[in-house]
Amino acid sequence: MSTDWARGAERFKPEDDCPLFSERLEEHIVGITRGELPNRGRFCGNCYTPMSIETVRCAHCQTSVQDRTPVGAIPDAVVDMLRRQRKTESNWVNGFAYLGLVLAAVFGLGVVLGVPYLRANLLPATIVYGLLLVVGSRMLAGLLGGYWGDRLGYERARRALRESWAELVEARDGGTGARR
Ligand SMILES: [Zn+2]
Questions:
Q1: Closest Cα to residue 94, out of 82, 83, 84, 86?
Q2: 127-161: burial string, b at 16+ Cβ within 10 Å, e else
Q3: How many Å lie between the centroid of ligand 1 and the Cα of residue 65?
Q4: Reported pTM
Q5: For a 10 Å CB count at each end of the chain, is N or C smaller?
Q6: Would you give per-residue pLDDT tens digits along the chain (180 residues)?
Q7: Are 29 and 86 in contact (CB under 8 A)?
Q8: Exposed, middle or buried, 84 (CB in 10 Å: 0-12/13-18/19+)?
Q9: How many angstroms is it from 61 CA to the middle of ligand 1?
């Protein structure tokens, strides 16, 4: 279901010169790390997007097979880059969600201690605090994690990815200029 939605929606394309990750490459790497797909096949020699045997030009980065011979496997470094990207993103989302939880707890405490009736009556205070905690933490965790955590995490992860990609390209194409 979600893949139909993802296909219909416009995918966010970052404005930089790093061609990682095409949707197909990302899907393939996820398949590899789950053990559902082998790291074998035909991949673009530039951006490692999976290519069928007849394809002469990468659909993602437009590199032709004459310019850069397709490779038979995705380099471990590239698989690792996706793993690191996702880890950075989830750390930021989880971190901000946790912050939302803490804020809800502090806010709930403030309400219970700030209202004299609640301060004097343990049972109603506990009920109010419980409700504020459940509703507030859910809202704040979703808002902070799902919005700020997601955005900041993506930016951080993308920056690190661009650096890793530049290093990989330098190691791959720099120096002798030999094609692999
Ligand atoms: Zn490509």
A1: 86
A2: ebbeebbeebbeebbeebbeebbbebbbeebbeeb
A3: 9
A4: 0.78
A5: N
A6: 334 334 444 456 677 889 999 999 999 999 999 999 999 999 999 999 999 999 999 999 999 999 999 999 999 999 999 999 999 999 999 999 999 999 999 999 999 999 999 999 999 999 999 999 999 999 999 999 989 999 999 999 999 999 999 999 999 998 554 444
A7: no
A8: middle
A9: 4
Q: What distance in angstroms lies between residue 45's CA and the mean position of ligand 1's atoms?
A: 7
Distance CA 47, CA 173 (A): 13
Compute, in angstroms, the gap from residue 8 CA to the centroid of ligand 1. Answer: 22
Does residue 35 come out as left (phi exceeding 0), alpha (psi in the -120 to 50 range) or beta? left
Q: Domain coordinates of the chain in residue numbers?
A: 1-74, 75-175
Residues lying with their CB under 5 A of ligand 1, a single-atom ion: 44, 46-47, 49, 58, 60-61, 63
Strands (DSSP E) found in the chain: none
How many CB atoms within 10 Å of residue 19? 19
Instruction: Scan for tokens 């394809």, then name that residue.
Output: 55
Q: Ligand 1 center to residue 7 CA distance, Å?
A: 19
What's the rounded Cα separation, in Å, for the pair 90 and 54?
37
